[in-house]
Specification:
Elements: E1 40-50, E2 53-63, E3 69-75, E4 94-101, E5 110-116, E6 118-124, E7 130-136, E8 139-141, E9 145-149, E10 157-159
Parallel strand pairs: 1-10
Antiparallel strand pairs: 1-2, 2-3, 4-5, 4-9, 6-7, 7-8
Bound molecules: zinc ion.
Length: about 160
């Protein structure tokens, strides 16, 4: 007799098969989670002028919850073909800036970038060369390039 060898009440164990990996949700268009509850609203444009004629603009958006700014570059006459869905990301140690090239003309003369306080930035010229530009205090220091911070020029036009 072995009356004790079938302990009752022990749950049976099953091997469960999951039909699909539940971690892999379909990818929704990414809205940049700048904070817990993003409320991103349009703030203002900064126009880019050459000889008092507007050739492009930077649209500035801001999250009303965490106040983080987002910028989008627009060149007049060219539809936005940006492949960034949702708001472009910016790190806490970066600022939105426009780099102005003295070597180029028209729409190639400027480009929206993110600048760190110091260091170097890789900059792609109109003829697709990568050059290194030096950054000092959120500004480009270079003989042929200059820069300005987008948020210093909200609602204004900047002559480049
Ligand atoms: Zn936010």
């Amino acid at each position: 007799m072995s009356e004790s060898d079938a302990p009752s009440g022990k749950p049976q164990s099953f091997t469960r098969k999951t039909l699909s990996n539940s971690d892999e949700k379909p990818k929704a268009p990414e809205i940049y989670k700048c904070c817990e509850n993003p409320q991103i609203t349009y703030l203002a444009p900064v126009n880019i002028n050459i000889d008092e004629r507007t050739i492009g603009s930077v649209d500035v958006w801001r999250c009303a919850a965490c106040m983080k700014p987002f910028c989008e570059e627009k060149t007049l006459g060219i539809d936005s073909i940006s492949d960034i869905v949702g708001m472009p990301r910016i790190e806490d140690n970066e600022k939105w800036a426009v780099i102005v090239s003295k070597l180029q003309k028209g729409k190639d003369k400027w480009k929206l970038v993110k600048l760190k306080e110091t260091g170097m930035i890789k900059f792609e010229t109109a003829d697709e060369k990568l050059i290194d530009l030096k950054i000092q205090d959120y500004k480009i220091v270079d003989d042929y390039h200059s820069s300005f911070l987008v948020l210093d020029h909200i609602h204004t036009a900047v002559e480049i």
